[in-house]
Amino acid sequence: MRGLTGLNIYLEEKNLPPSQYQDQKIESKGFLPEIYIQDFPIRNQRVTLCIKRRRWEVKDTGEIIRRDWNVVQQGTRMTKEFADFLKDLN
């Protein structure tokens, strides 16, 4: 994404397959398209998390797998944890 202004934090998922596939032969197949999440401002600067998620192939089946991340609460632009926190205030 070009033209990101403010503070951009780049995060790349480690090459550690999901635990439920530890007993299988797994091969890293690179990354999914980068996603961008607007987070809370820091010192009045817009914050964008730029996240690169990995994908793997299960060698025996050819299945492509990825870790299930529910980072953003559905229908909001905030993290699930913060949305849950706000709901508890009501």
Computed structural class: mainly beta
Which outline best applies? elongated
Unreliable parts: none
The succession of helices and strands, N to C, reads EEEEEEH
**N-to-C span:** 36 Å
**What percentage of residues falls in helices of 4 or more residues?**
10-25%
Structure description:
- The protein is built from one helix and six strands.
- With 90 residues, it is mainly β.
- The protein has one domain.
- It is elongated.
- The termini are far apart.
- The model has no long low-confidence stretch (mean pLDDT 82).
What descriptors fit this protein?
90 residues, mainly beta, three-stranded antiparallel beta sheet, 1 helix, 11% helix, 39% strand
Overview in brief:
With 90 residues, this protein is mostly beta strands.
Layout: helices, strands, pairs:
Blueprint (H helix, E strand, L loop, with lengths): L6 E6 L13 E6 L3 E8 L2 E8 L1 E5 L5 E2 L14 H10 L1
Parallel strand pairs: 1-4
Antiparallel strand pairs: 2-5, 3-4, 5-6
